[in-house]
Sequence to fold (173 residues):
Amino acid sequence: MKRILEIGPGSNPMHQKHGENLRKLAPNERNLLLEEGEDYTALELPRVAFNHWIWQTAKEAYGDRVHFVHGDGTEMSFEDESFDELVANGSFVGDEKTFAEFHRVLKQGGILRLGTKAQNAQRVVHDWAYRLGKMGFTMVDELTHRYRYTHNKGVIANLRGTDYVVLVFRKES
Fold:
C-alpha cells in the first residue's frame, strides 16, 4: 500500500492530480483521486473540520483508505518513515522545523511534492532546493509540473486563476 500524507488540503485535496483539468471542473467535481493501492491521510489544523462534502465523498468512495488527522506540520504524530509521499500545496511554512518533519515521516526514496504560485517558483527553487538538498533530498525535475489553479470564489481569492507549480523532491538519505 502506498501511503500518502497531505498537509493542509482544505477542501481541495491533492489538486495537483487534476492538473490542467482542474479549471474545467465544477467545484463539486473536484474529488479526491486515489489510485488502487493508495492510502491517503489529510493533516489539518484543529480549527479545520473534516465535515465538508468533499471529505464525505472521499470516505464513501475509498472507505478505510482515507484518514483525517488534526495536527501541525511542524510536530506530526506519525512514526518515522511512515509515508511514501508527502504533498504540501501552498499550505506550509518552509522553515527548518517543517522540513525536518517532512524528512522524518517520509520513507527512504519517498516523494515530496511542494506546491506554490508560479510567480514564487524561482525563489522557492533556490531557497528550498538548497535547504532540502542539505537534508538529503534531490529535486526531480521531470516530475515537476505547472497548471492553472482555480478555486471557489471567495474561498481562497488570492489563488483563484493563478499559475501554479508543484516542485518534486526525492528523499535520498
